[in-house]
Amino acid sequence: MDFSVYFFSANDDVDAGERYRFVLDVARFADTHGFRALWTPERHFQEFGGSFPSPAVLSAALATVTERIDLRAGSVVLPHHHPVRVAEEWALVDQLSGGRVGLCLATGWHKNDFVFFPQNYDTRREYTFEHLETLRRLWRGDRVMFPGPDGQPLPVVTYPRPTTDELPLWLVHSTNPRTWTQAGQQGTNVLTLLDNWSRLAANIERYREARAAAGLDPSGGTVTVGLHTYVTADDDEARRTVEKPVKAYLSSFLTQRGTDAAVGGSSAALSEQEQDVLVEAAFEDTFRQRSLLGSPERCRAVVSRLADIGVTEVACLIDFGLPFPTVMRALPALDELRASFAADGGVPASAGGGDLSWYYRR
Questions:
Q1: Phi and psi based region of residue 345 (left: phi greater than 0; alpha: psi -120 to 50; beta: remaining)
Q2: Kind plus residue range of the DSSP H or E element containing 281
Q3: How many structural domains comprise the chain?
Q4: Theoretical Cys-Cys bridge with 291: which of 188, 189, 228, 326, CB 3.0 to 4.6 Å?
Q5: Is 159 inside a domain boundary?
Q6: pLDDT tens-digit readout, 165-199
Q7: ω into residue 160 within 30 of 0, thus cis?
Q8: Does 267 reside within a domain?
Q9: DSSP character for 353?
Q10: What gap in Å lies between CA 81 and CA 100, rounded to an integer?
């Protein structure tokens, strides 16, 4: 089981410079302790995750302070971009990082976001899957035709050239099981959240069957699952520490959903009381069953269960509202959990020594 670090950010009341210093500090720790990847999202026009409008820009910065760890977009909302720009920007990050890039592609769902290419909103899913192969061709260095002025087609080869011919790709999954089938058919990996254990197991099986039907190794491909993460000595201590920020995180998400419903002309927005009830229930379910929040024993059981149903990577969502020093102090415990699942002959458990005194001496 691989462990990666997933940023999304619900700390909307902190200084932006402090937030980005925190991201760089976590990156340094993860890079020297055997974590597989750093995930940075693409978010627009919302406080919820609004520190991340460009994963390519942030990953370029991360490339300068890391040496080993993969740098992944989690995700690029492809209908907001021309595929040529995606290929160019991420090839640059690939060069800066020495070939450590990976991209998760998303279709987008917030109507407000589609000030970028509004014509792509209704066909956003088709656009994403159509240009998945376009990105692969551009990455390989193929000459690809695109419409130019006056409708004349123009041939494009992108530069700089990346370090390899194959672009590691994920598809993000939310609620549509067809995404798992399409990911299997097209040979991509999958990034998802754990909303229901039975559904996740069924979707992974669907993904493996689709890979086999496409002539691919059914056991290949990475299934990455994102989980809220705070590993500490005691479950009760963890609950006291995370309850308020996790509830605020969930509330922000539901508020954003309500805003999207209003923009779309729907009357499905929740009342404040309904939202409070949902947040309370969601927190209990998240804490008890769908997170790495708690003692090492509790978290180890969750990871083992994920491995049993075919998950191959855990993306640890660490910036959901906790104070940054609290997150930093918990990283060695998370690293110990990671090391307990490391394959024989893998990265040493504490390549960086587990000492965080450098952080507090800054």
A1: left
A2: helix 272-289
A3: 1
A4: 228
A5: yes
A6: 999 999 998 778 899 999 999 999 999 999 999 99
A7: yes
A8: no
A9: T
A10: 22
Q: Find where tokens 């990034």 sit.
A: 191
Q: Evaluate whether residue 202 is within a structural domain.
A: yes
Q: What band does 344 get if pLDDT is binned at 50, 70 and 90?
A: very low
| pLDDT tops 60 at residue 130 | yes
Q: What is the β-pairing status of strands 223-231 and 189-193?
A: parallel
How many Cβ atoms are within 10 Å of 165's Cβ, its own excluded?
Answer: 11
Q: What is the pLDDT of residues 314-338, one digit of tens each?
A: 999 999 889 999 999 999 999 999 9
211/348: higher pLDDT: 211
Please report whether residue 226 resides in a domain. Answer: yes
CB 210 within 8 A of CB 183: yes
Residue whose pair of structure tokens reads 């994963």 in the numeric block:
55
Largest CA distance in the chain: 66
Token pair listed for 134? 């376009």
Which range of residues forms the domain containing residue 41?
Answer: 2-238+291-343
| Cα separation values, 51 from 10, 37, 74, 276, Å | 9, 19, 14, 26
Alpha-carbon span 47 to 11, nearest angstrom: 9
Task: Give the domain CATH number at 186.
Answer: 3.20.20.30
Q: Report d(CA 341, CA 303) in Å as an integer.
A: 9
| Other Cβ atoms within 10 Å of 216 Cβ, number | 16
